[in-house]
Amino acid sequence: MHCLDLRRINVEEWMQGCKKVILQHGSRPYVLTITRRGKLILTAADTQLDTESPASKADPIGKA
After folding, report:
1. What's the CATH architecture for 11-51?
2. Measured between alpha carbons, how far is 62 from 59 in angstroms, rounded to an integer?
3. Average pLDDT for residues 49-55, to the nearest whole number?
4. With contact defined as beta carbons under 8 Å apart, do 30 and 43 qualify?
5. What is the pLDDT of residues 32-41, one digit of tens each?
């Protein structure tokens, strides 16, 4: 693919109903978030995010 031939990716299909996904770019993880208003936010993630189990990410107080 040539640099000028841009691919179009449907984010809603790609994220499969999730509001957050982790994107791996080289050795660095990033979090792509869809906000309540439908905007996209890409932030550098803590490197532990991709290795934690879903249970360990839960809010220990239960207010998440």
Report:
1. Ribbon (2.10)
2. 5
3. 49
4. yes
5. 999 999 999 9
